[in-house]
Specification:
- The chain is an alpha/beta fold and 284 residues long.
- The protein has two domains: 174 residues, HUPs (Rossmann fold, 3-Layer(aba) Sandwich), CATH 3.40.50; 92 residues, Pantoate--beta-alanine Ligase, Chain: A,domain 2, CATH 3.30.1300.
- The chain contains ten helices and nine strands.
- Strands 1-4-3-2-5-6 form a six-stranded parallel β-sheet, sandwiched between helices.
- The radius of gyration is 19 Å and the shape is globular.
Length: 284
């Protein structure tokens, strides 16, 4: 595995690979890698000549400095995991490399409705930071395909909008969420949970399943949503931020007038002070 910290050296390497007509699959991450990330790398490896992973904790997408400081980091372990799945290239830049200018005076991005609901509502400025760093990474790597996990479903919509609006010649590939045996979605933030916290957090997935079952039994979205909320209310240690049923196309609440579409049941909650998100898709 080749490792690059410098943008220019990575671009020179990738230019040489493109001259050989080698396709590139790209997995952008913030490190603290787990099996979910590795599933993205494996698919990128299977579908492309080169698999590239970036490990960079992007400061501009954190609206909470405490969350940024506590975000798990272990680059040496990440390197070992990437080598085990035969990742070809690791890009691990510094803040100075990615943001050579003063971040406080940096540019901002708007994603319309997506900035106003769910993650956009509860994490103001988050998607602007995501869009900014991915624009940089997409420009640097110029991958044929970029791989993201379904766990960050709303972010996937942001990425697709970014690709469409800025004409990036990169195909977005969304890979299903990888879960623990108890249903807990794999996340780098899970490292901050105790064993009991992980068991407790698995109830988020159980609540999503209750909502999904209710929807498939024909219950109205609000009734189904309430079943999920009620199931979580039994756990005082879970601080629910939101649990919503939305149209997957636009993250708006489905209405009686909405045609039969795929809906998403999305949630965010705090367990042991750690913010977790999850979702499942339902054909309504």
């Amino acid at each position: 595995m080749q490792i690059f910290e410098n943008i220019k050296s990575l671009q020179i390497f990738l230019s040489e690979q493109r001259q050989k007509n080698r396709s590139v699959g790209f997995v952008p991450t913030m490190g603290a890698l787990h099996s979910g990330h590795l599933s993205l790398l494996k698919q990128a490896k299977n579908e492309n000549d080169l698999a590239i992973c970036s490990v960079y904790v992007n400061p501009t997408q954190f609206n909470n400095t405490d969350d940024l400081e506590k975000y798990p980091r272990n680059l040496n372990l990440d390197k070992n995991l990437l080598e085990n799945v035969n990742c070809d290239v690791l890009f691990c830049p510094t803040n100075e490399e990615m943001y050579p200018y003063e971040r406080a005076n940096g540019m901002a991005m708007s994603f319309g409705r997506l900035d106003q609901v769910l993650e956009g509502k509860f994490r103001p400025g988050h998607f602007s930071g995501v869009g900014l760093v991915l624009s940089k990474l997409f420009h640097i790597v110029q991958a044929d395909k970029a791989y993201f996990g379904q766990k960050d479903l709303q972010q996937c919509s942001v990425v697709q909008k970014l690709v469409d609006e800025l004409f990036f010649d990169t195909q977005l590939v969304v890979v299903p969420t990888v879960r623990e045996d108890n249903g807990l979605a794999l996340s780098s933030r899970n490292e901050r949970l105790s064993s009991e916290g992980k068991k407790l957090a698995a109830n988020l997935y159980q609540a999503l399943q209750k909502v999904s079952d209710a929807l498939q039994r024909g219950k109205a979205p609000e009734q189904a949503r309430q079943e999920g909320v009620d199931s979580l209310s039994k756990y005082s240690e879970i601080e629910l931020e939101y649990l919503e049923v939305v149209d997957k196309r636009n993250f708006m609440p489905p209405t009686d007038a909405t045609p039969q579409v795929e809906v998403a049941v999305c949630t965010a909650a705090y367990v042991e002070g750690v913010r977790l998100i999850d979702n499942i898709l339902v054909f309504s």
